[in-house]
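Q: Hi! First time doing this. I have a protein sequence and I read that you can turn it into a structure. Is that right? Here it is:
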Amino acid sequence: MLEIESERYGFKTKTIWFSEGPFDVRGYDGVVFHACVKNVDIAGFSKREFTTLTIDLTQDLDIIWRNMSKSCRSAIKRAEKEGIGILINQGYEKFSDINKSFRMAKGLPAYDVDIDFMKKHGTLFISIIDDTILGGQFYLNDDNNMRWLLGASKRLEVREDMQSLIGAANRLKIWEAIRYAKNAGIGKFDMGGYYTGKKADPQKEGINIFKKSFGGDIATHYIYEKDYSMAYTLAKRCYKVYKAIREGIEKTY
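A: Yes, that's right. Below is the predicted 3D structure, encoded as structure tokens:
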């Protein structure tokens, strides 16, 4: 279980990852549980479903490899043959810069993870060739879980032939993350989400195909949330209104 405390605007909150289910905490204005496996109803907690794709790391590594699609394995082998290297827990600042550029180029909302947060709560995998960083993936992890939280690359900034190589490097990073987790005795690898919405979304469905190429099983996890302070509840509501207004203004430009 991974417990993360934060304090902002005078409100103290806790985020808990990989707990079996929710429970009350004391001394906080609010708590959020992510990646719970138990489907329970507890007074005061809201609940949302979250679909993801998980790989059982208690299997032999060769079985995990064979469960991947042929095209996925071929891409990994190509990345290795082309000299792609993988660095672990290095290049935090460069990865943060790449992430900001990547999200802007794709028109995604800004989402950055503090470098100190990454160093404390997870593992960063960086792909590199000829001393040039191509991209990275950051994973949250505890003793039994590794979950993909953030990924970005230079794929949208380079010529077409390099885009294909970076795509292969992205697969190699995941394979190295799987092997790293397996060697660390971690039992579950979580790909960080799987789109199951009824509305057609080609981009998200394409990401599904990418993730499914690594094998694994579709799983339903649960997010639980509880506020212990009315002031905190009101502050969250005001922020949601502000965010909606801001996004509406941005779309007009």
